[in-house]
Structure formats: structure tokens, C-alpha cells
Design a protein that fits this description.
0% strand, 88% helix, mainly alpha, 106 residues
Amino acid sequence: MVPAALVLLAGHDVLWLGLPALVVAIAAFEFAIVSVIPLGTQMVAGAPAFGMSVMLAAGTLGRALSSIPATRVYTRYGMAWPAAMCAVLAVLTALGLRLVAALRTR
């Protein structure tokens, strides 16, 4: 997702580069959502439903909170800044999941 967002950031004003990058970024986002389901069920030992509900709530809250600034930035500056925001938030999510996994193994 991060590479696709960076390609979208670089080629947002070129249709033949930006459109495939957007498709790959959307597909990677959906793949990431589906791939995180097993992680959510393993997050809380002995309570897979609670872990799953925490992951769904966090994902919904993240999408809700980022949709407002992303829409405003898009209407003001175009596609480059929302793509940069997508890349930064994807990296932060990956680092957060790595931190949770590291804390869980202790």
C-alpha cells in the first residue's frame, strides 16, 4: 500500500501513472483489511471476539477521522497530499501492529 501511495503521490497529475496507482492502493487497502482479521482474533488471549471488535472499531474510527481532513486537503490541493497522508498512516499502522506483536510476545 505504501509503494502504491508513493507512486500516486509522484504521478497524481499523470493519468496513465496515477490511475493504476490508485487501483493498486485501493486493492492493497482492501487486502490489508482482510489480512488483519486473523491478527485481531489473536490480539487478546482467550477472547478472539473482543480482539476482533477492537480491530474493527479502531479501523472504523481511523477511516472516519481521516476522511474529513483527506477530503478537505483533496478539494484544496488535489490528489498528492491525500496520497502522502495515506502512505504516512499506512507506515504508522504497520509500526503500531509490530509494536503490539512485540508487546504480546513478552
